[in-house]
Amino acid sequence: EQQENGGIKDFNPAENTVAQPTYLSSAENKQTDKEFLMRQTFQYKSKYDSIKQTSSRELIGHSVSYQTRGRMYTDSPSDNFYQNNFLDTTSTSDSTWFQRWNNKIFWQGNAVLAPDRKLTGFMALGHEYFIFKNEPSQFLFEGSSSQRENYYWEIYLDYHIPKGILLSAYSNLTIVGDNSRYNNRTLNQHYFNSSISKAVLKNKFNVFASYLSDQRYPYIIERRIYTNHFLWFNDFAPMLAQKLEIGISESDKSFLLAGGIHGAENFIYYNSLCVPIQDTGNVNYYSVTLQKNFTWRSWHLDNKILWQKSEKENVIHLPQVMTGQALYLEKMIFK
Hints:
14-stranded antiparallel beta sheet; single chain; 18 strands
C-alpha cells in the first residue's frame, strides 16, 4: 500500500498557465496493489552427449495468478481549480479498481545443437478474466462492475548461430472479447519483437538491429472514466506502435551508440484539460542514444545521453535532450 500527499500550499491556478501542479495541498492519492502467483513445472526430457557436446531439455508447466489494484483520489477544493464538478463541489472521493485472474499452460525447451549453436523456445496458451469498476452513462449515480475475458498465445525463439550472430523473436496475440463497448466485435492485439546482432572486430563490439510492432486496444482508463471532475466514454480505435533501431555496442556493455525511428498510429494523448484525445494519423519521432561507462577498481560511473525529436510536438511532447549518470560501488555483497 502506498500513500502520497503533496506539499504545495496557497496555489493560485490563474498564476500558472503553463502546467498544472502534480499535487494539491489538500489532495491525497492512495494506491493498493496485491498479487498472488502459483507456478508448477515438470521436466520430462533431459539429454546430454559429452562426445558431440550437445544437450537438450524440455519441460511443461502451469501457472495461476491473481492480481488486484485499486486507486483512490481525495480532495477538498476551495477554489475553481477543477473545470467540472459533476457530483460534489466541496469534497472529492474518486476511486477505480480492477481484479485479474490469469491461467496459463506453457512449454519451454532449449537445445545445444553444437558448441556454437544454441536454440531456446517457449510457447504458451492463456486465459485472462477481468472484473473492473465501470459506471455506464445511464447509471451515473448507481455504479456497477464490468467483466472481460482475454484469450492469448505467445511464442519466443532465440537462436545462437556461428560467427557471433544472434536471432531472437517474440510474438504475442491476444483475442479480446469486449461486447460492452465494441458492438460484439472481437479485437485482436499483438506484440512482435525481433533482433539480430553480430560480433565484429575480434568480438570486441556487437552490431545489432531490432524491430518492434505492438498493436493494442486502449486501456480501460482511456475509454471510461467516471469521477467527480472527469467523465468520458470513448470508442477509440486500436493503436499501433512500431520501432526500428540499429546500433553498435562493446561486448562488456561499457559503450553504446544507437539510433531509432519510432512510429505511432492512432496515438492517444491527454490535452491541456487532462482529457484523452486520439490522433487519427501517424506520428513519428527519432532518437539517438550514447552511453559510456567507466570503471576504476570497484567504482563504476555510468553516463547516458539521449536526444529525441517528435514530428508533432502537440501530440507527443518529448524533452529534446536527457542525461543520466550513476555512481556506485560493486564489491563483494554490493552487486
